[in-house]
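[Meeting: bench + compute handoff]

Bench side (C.D.) handed over the final construct sequence. Compute side (W.E.) agreed to return the predicted structure before the next meeting so the bench team could plan truncations. Sequence as handed over:
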Amino acid sequence: MVLVHGLWVHGIAMALLRRRLERGGYRVFAYSYPTTRLTFAENVARLARYCREVGALRSHFIGHSLGGLIVLRMVGERADVVAGRVILAGTPVAGSHAARRLARLPGGRAVLGRSMVEWMEPGQRIDANGCEIGVIAGRMPVGAGRIVAPDLPTPHDGAVSVEETRLPAMKDHIVLNVSHSGMLVSRAVAHQIDEFLRHGVFEHGEA
């Protein structure tokens, strides 16, 4: 399984989630990439190369925020990477109100970085390529997104609204009482990831 982090952080941000999943018996790799310096397409190609180097015949993917967008594009475009189940956590597949607001501020596009700005361009598409996709959204409204976009549609996780996480091709969707960054340290999120990987659905009694 490959964990792919989100904007402005390093792969080490996934360390606690990685340990929890490893205790569940999974072989886990925490991928790290430059979230602002490279373009979206460059980061997709870089993730595909990393997956080939890992050498697994088939890999599950967990993507947080921007990382989920990169995973989705990769599994949709790269036939050389065989994906199992894909879990998106706080991933703005339907657009990001907070990012659009930040992009309008002086220097905002530079802060967002090349990958996110490229993703926000019109005409971007998502092709899940038949993968089973589970989506985790948060409803704890704590995060910097509220400062940039105080009118962020509710419910939201402090950066991404629940509606922005909905993907037509998803197999299951669950909303947990976690913030955007808090997803990375949440036992509930780790539990739901395990449930989806094992059964293809979330445990909705825990939501």
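W.E. noted at the follow-up: The longest strand covers residues 83-89. C.D. will use this when planning the next construct.
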